[in-house]
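Researcher: Here's the sequence for the chain we discussed earlier.
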Amino acid sequence: MATTTANQQAAPASPGPLKRIILIVLIAIIAAGAAGAGMWFFMSKRAPAAASSAEAAPAPAAVPLFFPLESMTVNLQSDDGQQHFLRIGLTLKLNDAKTQQQLTDHMPEVRSRILLALSNKHPDELAPLDGKRALATELKTLIEQPTDKADAPIHVQDVLFTEFVVQ
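Model: Thanks. This is the structure I predict for it:
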């Protein structure tokens, strides 16, 4: 009889199928609740942040207008007796079409200013990167000068080189 009692004690009591189903359903409910709570938490945090950042963000800047000028070729100053040429292409970055129209109306004067300024340069001045940047700044100042005394100055955001060849 000793062996019979030992065999009965060694076999564990298995839970009933009802207990397993309740345990699985309980785990599923807890997991679904956690997922729902996490979703609500993250969605409620992002919605106000997106709304407040949209209110705080400044209005988008106007799309710049690029106004290409015809290429120009000028003789450069030379101390060594050789002829040096500069072929340059420029594009102006403008704020609006009104500025473009003002430039178009006075283009002969603008081109004349640019050509006179360029023909006064030496090739050695234009070779380094700093020389090109200084030239862009100088050309911007020249272009922004009013053509008539009564006119307001024209605003140019930037002078961009599209072609730059020194020979």
